Amino acid sequence: MAQNIIQGRVTDTANNTGIAFADVYFPQLDKGTITDENGNFTIDKLPNGTYKFVCSIMGYESYSEDLTIPFNTPISITLKASAIEMEEIIVSTPFHKLQRDNVMKVEHANVSELKSAGAVTLADGISNIAGVENISTGVSIGKPVIRGLSSNRVLVYTQGVRLENQQFGDEHGLGINDAGIESVEVIKGPASLLYGSDALGGVLYLNPEKFAQQDESHGDVSGTYYSNTLGYSTNAGFKTSGNNFKFLIRGSLAEHSDYDTEDYRVTNTRFREQDLKAGLGYQGTHFKTELRYNVNASKLGLPEDIGIQSTQKTPLLPYQQINNHVLSSKSNIFFKDSSLDINLGFLYNDRKEFEEHHHHDHDDEDEHDDHEDDHDHDHDDEAEHDEHEEDEELHPALHMKLKTFNYDVKYHMPTFGKFETIVGVQGMHQVNTNYGEETLIPNATTNDIGVLATSHIHFETIDVQLGARFDNRTIATETDLNRSFNSFNGAAGFKANIFKNTSLRLNVATGFRAPNLAELTSDGSHEGTNRYEIGNPDLNNEQNIQTDLALEFKNDHFEVFANGFYNKVNNYIYLSPNGEFINDDPVYLYLQDDAALYGGEFGLHIHPHPLDWLHFESSFETVTGKQDNGGYLPLIPANTLKNTVRVEFENNTFKKAFAFIKLNSVFDQNHVSENETTTPAYNLLSAGVGSNFKVLHNMLSLNVTGTNLTNKTYISHLSRLKPDGIYNIGRNVAVTVKYTL
After folding, report:
1. What is the pLDDT of residues 565-615, one digit of tens each?
2. Tens-place pLDDT, residues 212-271
3. pTM (predicted TM-score)
4. Stretch(es) of the chain classified as CATH 2.40.170.20
5. Maximum Cα–Cα distance across the chain
6. What class, spelled out in words, does domain 204-740 have in CATH?
7. Does domain 1-82 have CATH number 2.60.40.1120?
8. Where in the chain is the domain with CATH 2.60.40.1120?
9. 343/333 Cα distance (integer angstroms)
């Protein structure tokens, strides 16, 4: 069979000189290369058809066009120098376009950038993305919040499949390690058209690291030390690609003590996490596939009050022990003018929670104030705990196994005039089984199926995207609860360049969320919640409609953006106390009421020419959530103003060097739900420096970042330790060394 080959050259618009080491890439085909020292490139083994073709390199505007293969003449690409950050292909939307060509506004961030800002975990790092926060329990447990919505209202995708790990629980974290995650994309708003139930509030899409280019091999090892927790994270990886087959593997280990504040260490916020990711790929001319596997084993302390003051790293009781497995396959079949994408996933979440049954009767109300006087006693308690740890009779109070199979099949139809169209089917089969002394949610089976169609229409001055979808979810439990939920959803949007350098996006979309098992069936107390929850088996779908308006201006020196949204949620599910007590815990019922959220993100980025190495960025984020009955929604992030000054430079010694200083100003949050505490304003100062160096013919990267440099004592409004008045993490200095082989 004849092989299609394209050849070309990438040059600088200003002087027509070749640009070396530029990436030239077909994202849908996952094939590409880099230019040689003269800017020339060759890519072979390409199938017939029309595919997005991208060229990018730091310091230049990214180039993108639809290229029809076979293409028999050399390609000439000219790139314009730019201080604007290099654009990436957006994977979480189905048409795989650069952000500037996307109808829907999607936030994109490289994990390396989030880590260089001082993030301890991935959940911590995503809070640096505009419109995204996380509900935290210490530093080890974090749940993503997108424009005020979280838990089962935000869907997480990893390795191309939806992550299912009992995310309904207040103290059930993200459960994904940042090692082997290349970038993060965030869809802010209902994405049920693309993803079905639970994407009512948005999607956090985690892109795994890419395989090596053909006939290349790479390896790296890195480590980070954190001064606050006396903790560390390490990871090492290797990847290689031959003519058809590709392979990668990456392992990591992280371990932390209780985090420190100016006044005390927060007892039992310690944790340990082990992670392994591996991938195997095959690439032919008309078919490519990849198989990825991730196992994450974590042991996470569950803090309750300020007690033992130590730097031990073994969690005390209560703690979680979680093993999470993600096995996924992603295949693409290329026909003459169309293609078929098949994503399959199997996820196995084994969650155990160990509780202290015999040591809760001692009086510890004064530990918060008197812990300095009790260190000897605390160390005795910890020694007792260590002996308990060795007790083979320790059984989990809560033990749940969640097994999920999901599938996602999309057919990219032949392009018809100005129309790109995709039709697809998605579904899920899920089984939850209990093995522990406690039953938080019953044994149950959940089945989903959804069908969708979406089109991207290219006109001369505007781009339009339309779509519709139908979903059905059934939930059957061993307690005789059998419910079926249906929903029809749609989305419409357009993007236009209304003035020179100015773009406007308007999107209207609907979404839905079926009630989860906890909301339908809860009947009991659970460690850490301090309440007795009673479910409501008659709950209906949450259904929403959101309008997004995004305005953006860019030139060589200045960028400004304004993103506004209004999100109307019908049948919003919430917890409310009924005034009764069971086993000394207040009783909370699951109720429904209509609600609305509104706000947005606004900001600017100044990079004055010829001082292209200097960057000033400022952004403001706000969201308000209210029920129709007049009450405010819980866990709504406080308004935040972020200001950053960053310099970037490069010479013969320093490669990709940077330095930054950042001030986060968080405002008062007085708009709170019933029985929720308010939080005062605070300012957090951070700074960092980093660079790459050539050492023994390979690249060594060194980054030093300090967060909360003034050691401010503060409480985040989204901290689950807030009701007990426990501070968030104090000053932390992170030192990262990475060596690329």
Report:
1. 999 999 999 888 888 998 888 888 999 999 999 999 999 999 887 787 899
2. 988 889 999 999 999 999 999 999 999 999 988 999 999 999 999 999 999 999 999 999
3. 0.91
4. 204-740
5. 82
6. mainly beta
7. yes
8. 1-82
9. 12
